[in-house]
Every structure is written in C-alpha cells, then in structure tokens.
Amino acid sequence: MRNFRIRHVLSALAIVALVLPTTAPVNAQSKGTIKIASQSPLSGGQASLGEGIKLGAQLAVEKMKGNLEKMGYKVEFVPFDDQAKPDVGVANAKNIIADKDIMAVIGHLNSGVAIPSSEVYKEVGVVMISPANTNPVVTDRGYPNIDRVCGRDDVQGVVGSEFAHGSMKIKSAYIVHDKTQYGQSIAEFFKADAEKKGIKVLGFEGTEEKSNFDSILTPIKAKNPDVIYFGGIYDQGAPFFKQAREKGIKAKFMGPDGMDSSDLTKIAGKAVVGMNYTSAAGPASALPKAKAFVDDYKKKFSKNPEPYAAEAYDAATIAIKAIEETAKKGKVSREDVATAVRKAKLSGITGDIAFDAKGDRLKAQYFVLTVVSDDPAKWGDNKIVKQLTIAPPEAKK
Amino acid sequence: MDFELLVGIFPQVLIDGITLGFMYALIALGYTMVYGVLEFINFAHSEIFIVGAFVGVELLLGMKASGWLDALPWVLVLLLILVAGMAVSGVLAVIVERTAYRPLRHAPRLIPLISAIGVSFFLQDAIRLFESLWRNSFNLVYPTMDVLNERFELSSTIDVSVKSLVVTAAALLMLWGLYSLVNKTKIGKAIRAVAEDQSAASLMGINVNRIISLTFLIGGAMGGGAGVLFGVQYSLINPYTGFIPGLKAFTAAVLGGIGNIPGAMLGGLVLGILESFAASYLSLLTGGAFGAEYKDILAFSILILILIFRPKGLLGEVVRERA
C-alpha cells in the first residue's frame, strides 16, 4: 500500500516535470538570476525609516525589472535587516558578497553601519548605492563601488548653523549628540560653523541614554540657551525634546535629518511643533516628479512614504539601469556594474542624479523644514523654509 | 568655573537623583528577595520589570481610545495601571519560576543562571513580537496626563514636577508595604524562615515551594510597579528598555548588600543620586573634557571603591551566612 502511494506520487511528479518546460515560455533560455539587495533596519527603534528604504527600493525593482527579464534574467529583490547595528550590518554584508547573484546593494540608513559594511562590499567590488548615509567618510575613502544619492553632513551641518544664525537669529546654542559616527560628526560640523559665526556654544554633550534625560537637562536649563541642537536619530531625540519641554526649557529645538520621521511627533507630540530640522533628502511632497511614486507607494503599501523612500527608489533605479547596460554588453559582473553606476546619469524622481569622482551626488539638495503639527499623519506637510542645491566639497587629500 | 551655576542646580540634581534612585530601589527588591531565598540571581527580572511598563501603556492607550482616560480622575487611573502592572508582572514572575527555575533547583548553581538569561531573551522578543503584531510599533509612548506634567517652580533653576512627586510617593508606599509585610506578618516570618534554612523551615510546617512562589510574586509585583512608574516618569519604552535599568538595579542590590531588603533601598538611592550627579556635573567640573557619557564610569568607580572597603555591601552584615 505504502509503496504504491509513493509510486503514485513519483509518477505524478514525472508528469509535472514533463509538462513544465512546455508551458513555461522563455525559461528555456534563462541566463540566471540577478538579485538586488537592500540593507536597512527593519526591526528596532529606527524601523520606520528602514522600512521606507526597503519598500522604496522594492517598488523600483518591481517596476524596472521588465527589460532584464526580457533579456532572460530572473530578477529578485532581497531585503536584509541590519538592525541599525554595525556588527549585524557587517554580518549581512558577508552573506551578500557570498551570494554571487547579488549585483547591487541599496542601503544603509545609518552611516555608522554603512561604513564598516562597505569595507566588506569593497572586497568583491559589489556596488552600494546609499539613499541616506550622509557622513562624509562614506565617500571620502574614494572607493569605486560606493555611491550615494543624498547629501553630506559637512554641508548639512553648515546649512543648519547658517539657518540658526541667519534666519532664527540665535545667540547661543547647546549641542547634544548620540555618540554615533553620524550624530557626533554632524553635531561637530554644526558646532564648528556656529562658533565661526559667533554663536556661543554653551555645551557639547554626548549621551547613549534612551529614556532618562533629567540629569543632562538640568545644566541645560540652568545655562538657558537659545537653541538646543540634537545630533542623532529621532528615537532618541524625541524623548529628549519631550522631557526638555516638560522640564520647562523654553529653547528652540533643532536637529539634522535623523529627526526626519513621523515617529518624532508620535513620540514627542506637541513638544516638537515648530522645531526646525535640516535634511539632505526632501519630503516627497517637495519633489515635483515624485507624485506618481507617492501614489504607487500608498496604493501598494497603504502608508505614506517615509523620508529616504524616494531616494531608495532612485538608487535602485540607477542600479537596475546599470545592470541592464552591462547585460547588453554580455556577462554581468560586479565590477562592471559598479563602473556603470559611477557613470550613470538619471533624471530621477528626486531630481537629476550624477556622481562625482568619489561617488557623491553632483548636485545634492538640502532643506530646512519646520514641524507643523503634532499629528504623525501630517508629517509629510512639514513646511520647507529653505531649499538649497549645493555641490559636494572637493576630496581632501 | 561658574560657581553660582554649580550651586544653583544642586537641589534639582538631588531631586532627579532621588526619583531615579527610588525607581532602582523598587527594581532591586526583586533581585534581592529572590537572592535572599534561593541565593540565585534572577536575570529575567529586568524583563518582568518592563512587562509592567507595557501593561501600563496598553491599559492607558486602551482607556484613551475609549475616552475613559479623560473621564476618570487621574489618581484612579494611576492606581489602576499600577495595580494591573503589579499583578501581571507578579504572576509572570511566578510562572517563570515554575517553568524555568523550579525544575533546576537542585542543579549546580550556574544552570538556573543560564536559564534566567534565556528567559530574559525570550521575554524581550516575546514582547517585541506581540507589540509588532498588535500595534505594529517598537517604541510605545505613555499618553500624557496633563496634571502629572505640572511643575512647581521653586526658583529659576529648580522645579519639581507632579510626576516625580507621585512616582516618589508611590515608590515609598510600596517600599513601606513590603517592609511591613516581611517584618510584621506571619507570611513575612515564613519568608525569612525559608531564607534562613529551607529544610528546617519545611520541618516547621512551612510549604517551601509556596513561599518561594510568593517571593517571586512579591518581587515581580514590585518590579512591575516600578515598570509602570518608569513609564509614567520617562514616557518612552521599548522591549529592550528594561535591560539597563535592570542591570543598574542589580548593582544597587549588590551595593546595598544582596539579600537585604533595606540594603536594596539604600543601594538604589545611592546609585541613583551618584548617577544623577555624575551626569550633571562631570562636564561642568572638567570643562567639557569628560561629558555626561562618563556618568556610569564615575558611578561604578565609586561603587567599586565602596565594595573594596565593604565587600558585603553597605548593609551587608545583617545577612548571615548559610551553613
């Protein structure tokens, strides 16, 4: 009885095996699989931004993969969760370089994760296009396979201090950062330029604290600065600002693009309304060409695109186009894809994209925004109070 | 050096330190009670603590959605979430003891310790899983109750929020309740008897297993209560928030003399105040060379010094060695 059943199954399988090749159309001439990976935090406190990067890239891959499929390639999108931790990012990177089908990486969210991970990508030359990593080191190392479609912190920090000095007319600032490569360095750029402009920096403090900011806030309150600048990410900045207001601190708040998430108002509520933050990636609403993207995104994932989702979309589009180009010439190799990306020119949804010799975007946009409402759903309505297009600084030797 | 500033913020730093210290004290009780009875460090206690905070926030969010939050007086709301947090955490601690520790009670000492670390990881990710399925979020925020955010301005640099007064009062009440339970009631006597000698206690007709469960229930409830107060005070929690306060509270328990209940309270207070002073004064005193990020290093250095001179902790002598 048992034997009989197994034989049954086997013959059924045989029939399926016979029928399949005749029903599947072009698979006979398949040239293999091409995978595009994303790396961003999909779990943990920064997941909402990381998820946006993943979904933006996924949307681009699904939309653009047609040409490659016609050429006989199977195109897959593989998201990785780096948990915003350097060690996890590096471990994922090792898995990525081991999978020979992965031709491009879209990521990361955190510069502190991107920098060590890109050392791994460099070993095999697989291209990484970053939608969000603003730390100067990311491209200043001059690796041929590391590019970014967003701006740089040494510019963004200055944009912030210029706004504080010129538009907000502040006289003194207190600077707090999160001790990460991203947060500390942008805080330092802000501080250096603020001091140059004559703003009095009353304090410069690093903290890894996530919940209890009482003891840091007490000296701040006593020193009574005009503005408090938090160099870091919203999951830490939001409770910090919230407790600052609860403690009766009346200073204005400022932050870099790490504050750019609807979770900031979800956590801090009224405390951050009126706060200014700089960004190296404008809100999708400010990008005239992004409307179709926003609609598609909303329809498919039934939520608003978070900041960097549009950048991830453009980054993935560049990756696919570069792969297409190399595929037309014959075999797709990681080196060729990286070279093609560096030379790529795209009229993307975030504007025209081309890279300079070290992988920085030629004309990156910088924004200063004001939080308008304590309703997280209205994050996209935040007012752009200043918009600049600035070329990256020359590579330092 | 700005002398006026240093003196000016002193009372505020002390107030913040005391609030934090009572929080540590409440959590430390869970460690110290279990150690007193079983001579075992319950490393899952930091998660029991944060479960209390999650129960509180879920209840508050639920009440907010149904409109009860504004309808009920805030004292009642606070009492309700406090009791609920304590109940859930207490029961959870008993379940953990039953499933993860009791089967290993006669195994070598390190085995239940490893089991405890396992439970800690398990609980962290269980909360994370639950919250991502239920609310699709990682960070949860305590809804603000306006009364609690009011502040009494004592001077331009010093003020006390209603919140920290309430937290301190609740903590004091819980500590007093526990102290009288252990020292003035029959159950307390039984707990002390089991701590002294389990087999002798069972010969005297004490149900040792029941007393151990009860110890976990009380310790867990204290932790859960501390979790709710932590959430009310600092407002943002996530499944991993419990780890650091748990570690600090464990340190506080050791500092006070582990196994000793007044010791845990004292240790918590000392650690909280030390930490608060280190964070506020380090950068002021060193001219920015050492910032608030060194607060734990300073606090723990002082701690090591204390333990070098008093290896059994501040109130360590009261614990007698087991034969």
Write the layout of secondary structure elements.
The complex is a heterodimer of chains A (397) and B (323).
Chain A: H1 2-23, E1 32-40, H2 47-64, H3 66-70, E2 73-81, H4 86-98, E3 102-107, H5 111-124, E4 127-130, H6 137-140, E5 146-148, H7 153-166, E6 172-177, H8 181-196, E7 200-206, H9 214-223, E8 227-231, H10 234-246, E9 252-255, H11 263-268, E10 276-279, H12 291-301, H13 309-329, H14 334-343, E11 345-348, E12 351-354, E13 364-370, E14 383-390
Parallel strand pairs in A: 1-2, 1-3, 3-4, 4-5, 6-7, 6-8, 8-9, 9-10
Antiparallel strand pairs in A: 10-13, 11-12, 13-14
Helix pairs in contact in A: 2-13, 4-5, 7-8, 13-14
Chain B: H1 3-38, H2 45-66, H3 68-71, H4 74-101, H5 110-134, E1 140-141, E2 151-153, E3 159-161, H6 162-184, H7 186-196, H8 198-203, H9 208-234, E4 236-237, H10 243-256, H11 261-285, H12 295-309
Antiparallel strand pairs in B: 1-4, 2-3
Helix pairs in contact in B: 1-6, 1-9, 1-10, 1-11, 2-4, 2-5, 2-9, 2-10, 4-9, 6-7, 6-9, 7-9, 10-11, 11-12
Provide the structure class of chain A: alpha/beta
How would you describe the oligomerization state of the chains in this entry? heterodimer
Number of helices, counting only DSSP H or I runs of 4 residues or more of chain A: 14
- Please identify the top-level CATH class of the largest domain in chain A: Alpha Beta
Mean pLDDT of chain A: 88
Determine the CATH superfamily of the largest domain in chain A: Response regulator
Radius of gyration of chain B: 20 Å
Cα separation of the termini of chain B: 55 Å
